[in-house]
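Hypothesis: this fold can be encoded by more than one sequence.
Test: take the structure tokens below, design a sequence, compare later.
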């Protein structure tokens, strides 16, 4: 029995040291994803090239969807500030776009993890990060990344033991941004609302000014849910909404099945107060979780991106709701069983981080190939007439190809055309020659 069960204190010091090292590793992974995303200019993937071009054309923000306005403004701020400061280098601006799209959501996740760590909830938020950001796809232009990250940051504040004035102000600011962030607030908003009301009503340790702030935040979260609901009832793009709601497509993809299994297993080890079990059993559970994740075929394509967003958002909501119930209604004390759950969560996080790194490196290689081709051509050429990956490749998104090829080349002459539906007329309608007369590339964005 001694090999299966351990007495309290036998390995407590070792577990604390291992947990600290794992936390540092998670934060280092987030920093690494940021650096890699910026260096690879991942923000240009898919619709990102078109959005980047429109920002240059307008010399400012490109907002296209009122219910998501605030999320768009936040992520586009680095590029807009640079342009208004006189920066006209395409290479610099392209990487600043990635800094906004990737760095800002990751900064909110980083902050949420730091805040929650002080209250013993680091691994709860790490699991939420893994199943939302790391599993929601490679599509960085989407406002959902920002919405999920700010929601997690708001949850980390709501679950703080000591809710001071600065925390309350941060919570209200987050709630305001979330009113126009993403349709996922339809289900995230009510959980945030309930947690805010609960603390304002039942937590006697909350100061009066913070209690008032909680009520303001709760009302704003309710407003965010209403705006999201209206956006779903009257969608900007009904076809995209239909893809997100295609349950048959969700069940047909192995990724969702394995992700659900890995999340359930690691979540069970994390949330349930089990008897004090040996590290061997904990590592067995972690190994199974990791095996499930590595088994899946992780890729991003136009057909499944909206499903990925929905599933990751629902998983985030479920984890945060369970965390709120555990913390607000329980004593929230750490136990050895939580340490063992942390092992599983860390392994799942690492397993999901690996394909994200692989995809970023793969996109950089693919974009370098596109760049080398566009540098050689002198006249507009259909994509089928080049050596670029044919349709179905992970990184080729069809309609933004003209804008991407022009950005990578640094001018609007000799671009790659996707097909007959998106010919040079669509590109020239945006006044491409005028845009590229002012914005230039100082050299290849992707160097060999």
């Amino acid at each position: 029995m001694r090999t299966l069960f351990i007495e309290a204190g036998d390995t407590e010091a070792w577990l604390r040291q291992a947990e600290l090292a794992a936390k540092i590793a998670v934060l280092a992974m987030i920093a690494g994803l940021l650096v890699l995303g910026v260096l690879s200019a991942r923000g240009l993937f898919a619709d990102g090239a078109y959005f980047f071009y429109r920002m240059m054309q307008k010399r400012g923000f490109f907002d296209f969807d009122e219910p998501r306005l605030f999320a768009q403004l936040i992520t586009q701020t680095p590029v807009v500030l640079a342009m208004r400061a006189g920066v006209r280098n395409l290479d610099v601006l392209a990487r600043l776009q990635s800094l906004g799209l990737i760095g800002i959501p990751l900064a909110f996740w980083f902050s949420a993890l730091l805040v929650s760590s002080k209250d013993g909830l680091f691994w709860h938020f790490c699991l939420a990060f893994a199943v939302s950001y790391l599993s929601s796809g490679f599509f960085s232009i989407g406002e959902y990344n920002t919405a999920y990250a700010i929601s997690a940051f708001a949850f980390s504040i709501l679950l703080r033991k000591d809710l001071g004035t600065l925390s309350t102000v941060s919570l209200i600011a987050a709630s305001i941004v979330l009113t126009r962030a993403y349709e996922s607030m339809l289900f995230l908003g009510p959980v945030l609302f309930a947690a805010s009301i609960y603390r304002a009503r039942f937590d006697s340790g909350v100061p009066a000014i913070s209690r008032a702030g909680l009520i303001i935040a709760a009302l704003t979260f309710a407003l965010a849910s209403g705006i999201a609901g209206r956006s779903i009832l009257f969608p900007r793009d009904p076809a995209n909404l239909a893809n997100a709601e295609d349950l048959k497509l969700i069940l047909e993809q192995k990724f969702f099945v394995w992700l659900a299994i890995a999340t359930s297993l690691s979540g069970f080890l994390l949330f349930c107060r089990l008897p004090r079990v040996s590290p061997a059993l904990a590592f067995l559970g972690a190994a199974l979780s990791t095996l499930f994740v590595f088994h899946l075929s992780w890729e991003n394509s136009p057909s499944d991106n909206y499903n990925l967003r929905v599933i990751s958002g629902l998983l985030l909501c479920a984890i945060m709701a369970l965390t709120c119930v555990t913390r607000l209604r329980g004593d929230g004390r750490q136990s050895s069983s939580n340490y063992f759950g942390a092992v599983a969560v860390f392994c799942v996080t690492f397993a999901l981080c690996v394909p994200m790194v692989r995809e970023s490196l793969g996109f950089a290689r693919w974009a370098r190939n596109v760049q080398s081709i566009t540098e050689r051509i002198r006249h507009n050429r259909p994509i089928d007439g080049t050596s670029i990956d044919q349709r179905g490749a992970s990184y080729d998104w069809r309609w933004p190809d003209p804008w991407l090829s022009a950005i990578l080349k640094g001018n609007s002459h000799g671009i790659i055309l996707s097909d007959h539906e998106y010919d040079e007329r669509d590109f020239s309608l945006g006044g491409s020659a005028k845009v590229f007369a002012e914005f230039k590339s100082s050299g290849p964005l992707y160097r060999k």
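Residues 336-376 form the longest helix (41 residues). The beta strands are 381-382, 416-417.
Hypothesis status: open.
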